[in-house]
Specification:
The complex is a heterodimer of chains A (783) and B (389). Chain A is of the alpha+beta class and 783 residues long. In chain A, 37% of the residues lie in helices and 26% in strands. Chain A contains 18 helices and 38 strands. Chain B is built from 15 helices and five strands. Chain B is of the alpha/beta class. Classes of the chains: A alpha+beta (783), B alpha/beta (389). At the A-B interface, helix 1, helix 9, helix 10, helix 13 and helix 16 of A face helix 1, helix 2, helix 9, helix 10 and helix 13 of B.
């Protein structure tokens, strides 16, 4: 039998490329389908990051076929911050340790994007599964939705991770230029912008005041709750007292309508600084103060009062001090960096006259006045810019208990802790370099108003996480990594590799994470049971009918059998099923329940066996103990009578449908095989010996014709499976066909691929076995 | 001959037997071809004159839902009621109908006021206890008859049945099943024929090339085609249809893909056997170019087989198209399409609305039958060697 062995080997070897081609074909057909499981599963409005991470976790972000960029990157520096966006504008999102190996999902060259100039190439890398590391609070917020199994291990403020959060209307102040900020003790924050006043509170969110939208606010001051003063550029002074707005202009006695500063003491007096001198409000009238009265200059940019009666005025020609009676002037000659004073701020000790400092901002730097001597700070000392817009001390700094002094300049913001300066500019995340206002609210959060928008300083602690699924994406400069190219890391090759390891992957939706093999294990017995039952029906109908037709050749029986075989082939199998449902399920059921005849004679025999159910596999909670998964076999093995009856009831209609559908082919097959056999010499010999005709035909001839029929059964296997898909759908039979059809709707790629590949292997295996049997029976085939 | 052996025992003349014995033409059983052909001609005529034949627009809701085939409305009154003798007497009397039934539409047309009842049971009860004097309903409806019987009511049907009747009833939206059936033929035929043409258009040249040229290209092509061929076609078509999305051409392509190997294998096999024929050998020795041999000697001899397989293939495509539509991967609603009608109609199987699912299925079967019988008959006529005995 050497040749048979050779034949089997060649046949098996040929099956491998055939399977490979099918597997490839199926893969590409399935994966190119429009839509994907992530989109099919999620409701609209889910953030893109969420989708991206899900896609990554499912391996859907890889290229389909070849992935030349699918390389890995190993972190070179000791610690590396991954950003959420590439380039200098990106915020720090993740902190990874040296040596961590990550996948590269994108690479952007420096010359591709003008924003990257000078920063080198950038890589988008993906954090691997089972990763432990530091994550920014923002990143954590959305990650929590994706990785349900994440665990938080530690919480810590990491230096260098502070970020500036940007606000813009409608979730922000009305205008882009935020010139002034004032916070009330109640938690209300007032923002003065180039498009009027906006108020923020935790309860109400952002509330722009539409009446003020045409005014540019330059300064805000409040001496007591619910009584605020707003300086406007061109529209005088606004006051809101208990939610009532009033305004004061030149008509009310102001020297000018361009107001730059406002400061007072309680409800009165209130000083305002305009481009034509200052003015003081005593609760009823305004009194103008000009350089003739002792003010250093006429353009009053800044006012600061100690809360008693002394007020300081910053003008273009020096700093003026008014103690209620006398004016004193300080100029560059006294130690100021410049005559042009733009900002003023004093701490509490200075206000009380117990030492302390007054800080004076000019267009050439900052000066500190301790009551006697002047100390200056310029860019050389670490100050971020020389033209100072605003000076603000955090409450703690004002009390002399730590804290920081903030200086807003045209080149950025600077903070001073008494020793060193830190600078914050657009490059470190601010909306704009031109910082106009600074405020620290009750919660300790710092707000910065710039010419380009409002920023909030975020120095929340980072979280150390254990992330089982991985998949977060971050950007970092390419020169921070050792890159290793891995070209075969694509969806296709991963899939092929998994298949070689007999791993069909996990479901992508709607049972995300469940191994496909588990589902197939559950569904395949149902299909197999249906297939076996319908093959039984097919053989029981097809073979006798075919033999009869061959025996009674050219008789009415023969023609009926042949017409039956032609017609049954042309009838759509699912329609046959529907008709059976209608007749045996619905009509029979109605009749069985209402007819007196059925009640009297049929019910005692069939009891509840009739009417036949039209969908499902077995009655609820009737399933027998799982042994093989074939319900009929299992119920026999466990001697479970009710389950057997139920399984048979449910099996009858689907098996009849599919069996009848396939029987047409078998009638033809048996008929033509029998006709051939009946012409053989040994039949003539049998007849000559006087053996009974019936015995000749159904004994000798049928036995000989049966072998090719059996082998042809294997060739009908593919048709059986195709028919099973439709039959299962019609009868809601929980087999592989129904499973596959359901999952196509969800674009559950792995499940579809898995079941199709399983089908392919099944068909290939069956046809292999059939071919081998055939070759064994008929040696001519081997050549 | 077999016939003499097996039928020798029949002495009597029988017209049926005579017909069966002589129902052959050139050795072929022509009744198969003729019946297939007649069926096809009838259905094709139907598609051509679909607009004239169909009494209603197939996609419009022309009637009330679930009208039984051929049903018309009747006026039913209690037996002691002598005042109403037909629909013309209804104005002035209290009339009842079942909500959303055809009766309501007909009475609206006649401007007759009526009361709605949510079910046949409540309507018949209302008639029994005198709430209404007359009930307008489909008097042949088994559900109505059952109620009359249950409530043991003495009623009579007066006047002639009136109103629209739908030959094959209406579906769940009140669309005419008959019109949808006729228009559905267009869709199915177009898709099936385009699909068959597409697969022939790809399969035949590839088969010719592969069989004629041979070599490694033949091996690779055969392997690919065999792989596709061995696989359950419908499953491949499902995947393809899901990939391409709805649309006539897309469905046709999805179906065509699975039938390319059918043509390929047939043509390649034929070419291989024809290449070995003596007349090809003779032509070659006379110096005919490969192109001449291929197109003048080989290809004409392949055509008969192609014609046969084409016809069978269209039949296959019809079934596959119906299967795809049934699975919801066919054309988007409301295009009339038999498979889709079945997939929507199956929801009403438990309610017993048989007419919604019966007729589209019958049409699919008839059309498939037409093509397969034609193919089978042609096969016996064009390839005489393949006939039995």
């Amino acid at each position: 039998m050497k040749t048979l062995r050779v034949y089997i080997i060649t046949r098996v070897l040929l099956t491998i490329p055939m399977l490979f081609i099918l597997v490839t074909l199926v893969f590409f057909i399935v994966r190119i389908m429009p839509g994907d499981p992530v989109e099919a599963m999620l409701r609209p409005g889910v953030p893109q990051e969420y989708k991206d991470q899900l896609k990554h976790n499912l391996g859907l972000d890889l290229p389909l076929f070849l992935n030349f960029q699918g390389s890995t990157a190993k972190v070179r520096p000791e610690q590396l911050f991954l950003q959420d966006k590439m380039g200098p504008g990106g915020g720090k999102a993740l902190l990874v340790e040296q040596g961590l190996v990550m996948e590269i999902s994108k690479r952007v060259k420096e010359k591709e994007d003008p924003a990257l100039e000078g920063t080198g190439d950038w890589l988008q890398v993906v954090v691997p599964p089972e990763w432990t590391g530091w994550v920014s609070p923002d990143q954590f917020d959305w990650m929590r939705q994706v990785n349900t199994e994440m665990t938080v291990e530690a919480e810590e403020v990491i230096p260098g991770t502070e970020t500036w959060i940007r606000f813009a209307a409608p979730e922000g102040p009305a205008g882009t230029e935020v010139n002034a900020i004032w916070g009330e003790k109640s938690g209300l924050l007032w923002f003065g912008t180039d498009r009027g006043v906006t108020r923020w509170s935790e309860a109400m969110g952002w509330e722009p005041f539409a009446d003020t939208a045409d005014k540019t606010i330059t300064a805000i001051w409040s001496g007591r709750p619910a009584d605020l003063w707003f300086a406007t550029d061109g529209a005088g002074v606004l006051r809101v007292k208990s939610n009532k707005w009033s305004s004061f202009t030149t008509a009310d006695g102001l020297p000018g309508d361009r107001v730059f500063s406002v400061w007072g003491k309680g409800s009165k007096p209130v000083w305002v600084g305009t481009d034509r001198g200052a003015a003081v409000y005593d609760g009823e009238t305004w009194t103008a103060v000009t350089p003739d009265d002792g003010l250093a200059g006429q353009e009053v940019r800044a006012i600061w009062g100690d809360g008693k009666r002394t007020f300081w005025f910053g003008t273009e020609a020096g700093l003026s001090r008014f103690d209620g009676e006398e004016w004193t002037t300080y100029t560059a000659a006294d130690g100021l960096p410049s005559d042009r004073v733009l900002a003023l701020w004093g701490d509490e000790a200075f206000a009380k006259g117990q030492g302390g400092n007054l800080w004076v901002g000019t267009d050439a730097g900052l000066a500190r006045f301790d009551g006697e001597t002047w100390t200056t700070y310029t860019t050389a000392d670490g100050l971020v810019g020389h033209r100072i817009n605003v000076i603000y001390g955090e409450p703690a700094f004002a009390k002399g208990q730590g804290g920081k002094l903030w200086v807003g300049t045209q080149e950025g913001a600077g903070s001073f802790d008494g020793q060193t300066w830190q600078t914050y500019t657009a490059a470190s995340g601010l909306s704009d370099d031109d910082v106009r206002a600074v405020w620290q609210d009750n919660g300790g959060t710092l707000w910065l108003g710039t010419a380009g928008g409002l920023n909030r300083f975020d120095s929340r602690p980072w979280l150390k996480l254990y992330v089982p699924e991985g998949g977060m994406v971050g950007w970092a400069p390419a020169d921070r990594f050792d890159v290793k190219v891995k070209p075969l890391d694509s969806q296709y090759f991963n899939y092929l590799g998994d298949l070689l390891r007999l791993d069909l992957g996990v479901s992508m939706a709607p049972t995300r994470g469940r191994p496909v093999a588990e589902d197939l294990k559950l569904k395949f017995p149902a299909t197999l049971e249906l297939a076996i039952a319908s093959l039984t029906v097919t053989i029981l109908i097809g073979v006798p009918l075919g033999a009869l037709a061959a025996h009674k050749r050219r008789s009415v029986t023969d023609y009926t059998a042949r017409i039956f075989s032609i017609v049954i082939w042309a009838v759509p199998v699912f329609w046959l099923g529907l008709m059976f449902q209608l007749i045996f399920g619905v009509y029979l059921g109605e009749w069985y329940e209402t007819s007196a005849f059925a009640r009297q004679y049929l019910y005692p025999i069939f009891h509840d066996f009739l009417p036949l159910p039209i969908s499902g596999r077995i009655g609820t909670e009737m399933a027998p103990q799982h042994i093989t998964g074939l319900y009929i076999l299992d119920s026999i093995l466990t001697l479970n009578g009710p389950a057997l009856v139920s399984a048979l009831r449910y099996m009858l209609l689907p098996a009849l449908t599919l069996g009848l559908y396939l029987s047409g082919v078998f009638v033809r097959l048996t008929r033509s095989n029998m006709l051939d056999t009946l012409q053989e010499d040994f039949i003539t010999a049998c007849r000559a010996r006087g053996i009974r005709e019936r015995s000749v035909v159904y004994g000798h001839a049928l036995k000989n014709a049966f072998i090719p029929i059996l082998t042809m059964m294997g060739l009908q296997f593919a048709a059986l499976l195709a028919g099973a898909v439709l039959t299962e759908t019609t009868f809601s039979w929980p087999g592989m066909g129904l499973f596959m059809w359901e999952r196509i709707g969800y674009r559950d790629f792995n499940s579809i691929q898995g079941s199709v590949v399983f089908f392919a292997v099944l068909v290939a295996a069956v046809s292999l076995i059939v071919d081998i049997i055939y070759a064994w029976i008929d040696p001519r085939i081997r050549y | 001959m077999m016939r003499e052996e097996t039928n020798a025992a029949l002495p009597r003349f029988s017209p049926v037997r005579w017909f069966l014995d002589n129902a052959k033409w050139y050795g072929a059983e022509w009744w198969i071809t003729i019946s297939g052909g007649v069926l096809l001609v009838a259905i094709i005529l139907m598609t051509i004159f679909a607009d004239r034949l169909a009494p209603y627009d197939p996609i419009k809701f022309v009637g009330a839902p679930f009208n039984r085939p051929g049903a018309q409305q009747s006026v039913v009154v209690l037996q002691e009621n002598d005042e109403i003798h037909g629909v013309e007497d209804l104005p002035g009397h209290t009339v009842g109908i079942v909500t959303n039934s055809q009766a309501g539409r007909e009475l609206d047309k006649l401007d007759i006021l009526y009361q709605d009842y949510t079910s046949i049971r409540t309507a018949v009860e209302a008639l029994a206890n005198g709430e209404i004097e007359a009930l307008v309903t489909d008097a042949d409806d088994p559900k109505y008859r059952e109620q009359i019987r249950k409530q043991e009511l003495a009623v009579k049907t007066v006047g002639e049945p009136f109103g629209d009747s739908f030959v094959l009833g209406t579906d769940n939206y009140g669309r005419d099943v008959f019109s949808r059936m006729i228009h559905g033929a267009r869709t199915v035929l177009a898709i099936a024929i385009v699909a068959a043409l597409l697969s022939a258009g790809f399969g035949i040249p590839l088969g010719l090339l592969s069989g004629f040229a041979g070599g490694s290209m033949d091996k690779v092509l055969s392997l690919v085609m065999d792989s596709i061929y061995s696989f359950p076609g419908l499953i491949l078509a499902i995947a393809m249809a899901a990939l391409l999305g709805p649309g006539m051409l897309n469905i046709a392509i999805a179906i065509a893909v699975i039938y390319v190997p059918v043509y390929f294998r047939l043509v390649r096999g034929k070419v291989l056997s024809i290449k070995a024929e003596v007349y090809v050998e003779a032509a070659r020795s006379l110096g005919a170019s490969p192109a001449t041999i291929l197109f003048l000697y080989v290809f004409p001899n392949v055509i008969p087989s192609i014609v046969v397989i084409f016809s069978v293939n269209v039949a296959d495509s019809i079934l596959t198209e119906a299967g795809l539509s049934f699975l919801g991967l066919g054309l988007p609603p409301p295009t009339p399409d038999w498979g889709m009608d079945l997939s929507f109609g199956r929801r009403f199987v438990p309610s017993g609305y048989w007419w919604i699912i019966t007729f589209p299925g019958v049409m699919i079967a008839l059309l498939t039958l037409g093509f397969s019988m034609l193919g089978e008959g042609l096969n016996e006529i064009l390839n005489p060697r393949l006939t039995e005995n």
